Amino acid sequence: MIIILLTLSSAVISMAAGETITHESGEKRGSITVGYNAGVTYAVTIPASVTFSDTENVAERSLQVTNVVLNEGSVLHVNLASRNNFKMMNGEGYMEYHLKINSHDVQEDDQYTILSVSAGEPSGWVILNFVTDLQKDHLLYAGNYTDTLTFTVSIE
Amino acid sequence: MDEMDEKEGKKSSKVKWIVMLVFIGLLLFEFITGIGLKDGQIFGKRNASDLTEKAGDGVELIIDPNAEHRLPYEDTGSFEQGVVITGWESMTFSSNTKEESVDFFNPEANAHLYYLTFELRLYQADKQGYEVLYTSNLVEPGKSIRHITLSRTLEKGVYNAVVHVQPYRMDAAKTLTNNADIKIKLIVN
Question: How many structural domains comprise chain A?
C-alpha cells in the first residue's frame, strides 16, 4: 500500500513540474500549447533545355511553381536570364531568339519576370514560347549553337 | 415420351460440344495464322511494309517504315520533363564555425533524369560579384546534403546570398542543362 501511494505522489509532482495544473472541485485540468511552425518552402520545375530545328522556329516549354508556402503578404517571383543575351552561340557565330508569353514579347524592361505567385496561392505556372526567325546570316560554323538560361527565384 | 426427351437432350449436348470444338479450332487457327475477324472485317498479322490504309479518295497511303523521329524524344516540346528544384527564403548559420547544417535536396521527381549540384554564393554589396562559400558534387535524386563546411567563418549579420543549382543529365556525358538561382537571406547569429 505504501509503495502505491509513493508512486502516485511522484507522478503528481512530475506533472506539476511540466504543465500548468488547475485544481477545481477535486478535478485536475491541464493545458498545453499545440503548435506548428511552417517554414517558407516551394518547388520550381524549370525546362531542362530548349531546342530548335530547321523546321521548328518555336519551342514551347512550361515553368511551374508548386507546394508554395510563403509568409503572408509575400510574393514569389521567377525571372529569366540568358548567358549569351538570347543568342545561341558557336564560337563567334550565333543565332538570335526571343521569349514570348501569351503572344507578348518579354523585354529587358520587364526584367524578364516570367511568373509571380502570391502568398496563399499554392502553385503557379506559365507557358514559355521561345521563338527564333531561323536567320542564318551569322552562322559561321556547322555544329550546335547553344545558350544557357538561368531561372532566378526570389521572395519579396 | 421420356425416351424422346432423353434423345433430344443428348443430341443438344452433342451440338454444344461440336460448336465448342469448332470455336476452339477457330481460335487455334487465328492464333497460328494471325488471320481473324475484327469489327466485321478479316484482318491478319501485318509487317510494317504492309501497313496500307485507303484514304477517302481511294488513294493508298503507306506508312514508310524507314522514316525516323527527327528530334530526340525530349525535344518534342511539352513532353520534356523539367528539373524539379526545391527552394527556401532564408538560412541561419552561426558566426563562430565553418560547419553548418543545410538541406540541399535533389527531389525524387528527378529520378533517372538529373543530378543536381549546389553552390552557395555570397553577393557583395554592389551585387557585381560574389564569393563562393561552398560547392557540392553531384547529388543523386532522393538524396540530400545536410552538413557542409564553409570556405570561411562569417561575421554576425544578414547577407544577400544565392544558392546556384546546376542540374546535369544522368547520361554518360553528364551534360549540363538550364539552371536556377535561389535568392535567400543568409542570417548569421
Answer: 2
Residue numbers in A near B114 (CB within 8 A): 48
Task: Give the Cα separation of A11 and B19 in Å (integer).
Answer: 83
Q: Are A16 and B152 in contact (CB under 8 A)?
A: no
Which residues of B fall within a CB distance of 8 Å from A151? 178-181
Give the predicted TM-score (pTM) of the model.
Answer: 0.67
Minimal Cα distance from A74: which residue of B? B89
Q: Does B71 touch chain A (CB under 8 A)?
A: yes
Class of domain B85-188: mainly beta
pLDDT tens, residue by residue, A52-88:
877 788 888 999 999 999 999 999 999 999 988 888 8
**Domain coordinates in residue numbering, chain B:** 2-67, 85-188
pLDDT reported for residue B8: 67
Determine the structural domain holding residue A133 and report its residue range: 41-155
Task: Report the chain B residue with the minimal C-alpha distance to residue A58.
Answer: B77
A36 assigned to some structural domain = no
Considering the domain architecture, whether residues A120 and A54 belong to the same structural domain is answered as yes
What are B122-163's pLDDT values in tens digits? 988 766 789 999 999 999 999 999 999 999 999 999 999 999
CA dist., res. B109 & res. A9, Å (int): 54
In chain B, what are the helix, strand and coil shares in percent, each to the nearest 5? 20, 40, 40
Contact B70 A45 (CB under 8 A): no
**CB contact (8 A) between residue A48 and residue B74:** yes
